[in-house]
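Quick question, first post here. What does this chain look like in 3D?
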Amino acid sequence: MKSICVLSGGMDSATLLYKLLDEEKEVKAISFDYGQRHRRELSQAVLTCSKLRVGHHIADISFLKDIISNSALTSNTQVPEGHYAQESMKLTVVPNRNMIMASIAIGWAVNLDYDEVALGVHAGDHAIYPDCRPIFIEALANIAEIANYKPIGIYTPFLYMDKGDIAIEGQKLNVDYSLTHTCYNGLVKPCGKCGACVERAEAFVKAGVKDPLL
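> Answer (accepted):
Ran it through. Tokens below.
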């Protein structure tokens, strides 16, 4: 099985990459520069792929910030603080982001004659992000089956797991979380206030281990 891993540089996709390798799949990773407010996640994705000796491509789609600029992640809008369950976290939605990235990854998979695209979406994203919900993943999988002469599978093993479950899985896989980045504000040490950092902290508590970035 040959798999394209969409790798943001965060905890979830890094754990996914380790999982794919543990499943003895042939893997390449793709990350996206979509004009996000900082590039630290991309730098960490490079480090993770270098450590694991995985082929890695960063796709430049930074033009998106010019046409999708109403998100706190693609503009100077202040990043909201608090838990993902709060309504204010909708400010971190980048419209259609997963559809755009998945489409590009599917095209690359077809071009390379790979079998599937792997995404690290999980249950903690469902409340705020429509393109992380099961109904979207199901529709995406249907499209990926028919959009090209070669059907491409969509692999989302964490779809019904929360970030804490992913961290537990990561411990089993010996994921180097010191090479991951989560903070929406781009800080090396988690700010502890943005939704991403709050969820990361909860995940390590559930896993019973200390965050190596603290």
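The first strand starts at residue 2 and ends at 6.
Helices lie at 11-22, 40-52, 64-67, 97-112, 134-146, 163-173, 195-207.
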